[in-house]
Amino acid sequence: MKKLILFTLFICAGVFAFGQKRVVCCSKPSATRQFAMLASNPKFQMEHKTPLPVHFQSAIGTTINYKTADGKESAAYFLKAKKATNNYILVIHEWWGLNDFVKRESEKIYNDLGNVNIIDVDLYDGKVATTREDAGKFMQAVNDNRAKAIINGAIAYAGKNAHIATLGWCFGGGWSLQASLLAGKQAAACVVYYGMPEQDVNKLKTLNADVLGNFANKDQWINPKVVAKFDDDMKKAGKKVYLHQYDADHGFANPSNPIYDSNATKDAYANTITFLKARLK
Fold this sequence. Notes:
Elements: H1 2-12, E1 15-18, E2 21-24, H2 31-37, H3 42-47, E3 62-67, E4 73-79, E5 87-92, H4 100-113, E6 117-121, H5 132-141, H6 144-158, E7 163-169, H7 171-183, E8 187-193, H8 201-204, E9 211-216, H9 224-237, E10 241-246, H10 262-279
């Protein structure tokens, strides 16, 4: 019995020897799953203050539907460029879902950038949270394969000639980087607001876009140590990353967040617009 227990512990440690081969039996969760798993931590949930009400009604935004490779459909919020252009931005929501804050922010970016198409993808398939408990449940329920199908469907909707930038906050910040990886050679720029970085250097080597990262030094989860590792990993991958780190907390760029930091938000936003303008010409 003792030998069996020891063998079981050895297996669950993740690696065992078989002949001359090394076999990994417990794979490391993806970066997006690692972030989603944080939702089970009560402290992480409490760090996300209940958002203040945001009501936004657009005169130009519309809902679009497109097919996804998993045999389903996805709905997205779409801002169409005034003149025909191949420039697109895929915007990915926070852990709250595709709510009015995201739509309002997308329209602000749309107006400040000029001629660009914006697609706000919905990784929650229509669910929007107003409490941190629901946000945690929705985020944990996201299946990586479904999320990738939704993003790939949006890329296909944009078309094979599209130049694609990605942008997201929190949960969406991590998925912004993943979306740029999925876009392959069509990727033109990537903006990450306090999201979980990709930690596989080999994957980062396939990235076709420069990355702008807006991070918070008071963030206990995507903390300065995580950001420093990302910076190092990007250098190892031979990719460019432009980091802006603020004396603020996670979620600082959302005005509906009680810990909103207006000065950090203004600076991060100005840098984001400059970064995108230079890459979506």
